[in-house]
Amino acid sequence: MILPIYIYGQPVLRKVAQDIDVENYLNLKELIDNMFETMYYADGVGLAGPQVGLSDRIFVVDLSPLASDEHPEFKDFKKVFINAHITERSGDLEMVEEGCLSIPGIHEKVPREGEVTIAYLDEDLQPREEHYSGFMARVIQHEYDHLDGVLFTDRISPLRKRMVKNKLANMEKGKVACDYKIRTVR
Prior knowledge:
The chain is α+β, with helices and mostly antiparallel strands. The protein has three helices and seven strands. Strand 5 and strand 6 form a beta hairpin.
């Protein structure tokens, strides 16, 4: 089932998400399937719980659509991150343009560390701790930020923040057009 994606201004996007009680969480598998379906429908490569209105520490990522001869490592990179916690960030800060399904139409260069280590439960509720670098690390950090109530626009330069201020204000007023199902504040 395709879920509505919560747009900038929705309070849930600013809350710190809580760990999931995986023993008692109803329909977790269904939620995961719905999150992937929603993400694919919106042409995204990642989607976090707060983006579908849930203050739960879960996000999904699928980089396989971006796989190429240049990036064969993306081919099988489809993962679920439950109760994710970044344990280390390292490497040089890299400025790369990002976008977000919850902030449609805005793309900005965002500084992020080049490497990240993350502990989480996978889709089978198995504990994992993995190290990522490059674009994989960037996507994971972007989705992880959603779990902490942080949006990529919080990380851009003050000048760029002023330049997108009106667009963000319009989103808060419900003035936004998307090709996918959304939920605005108004």
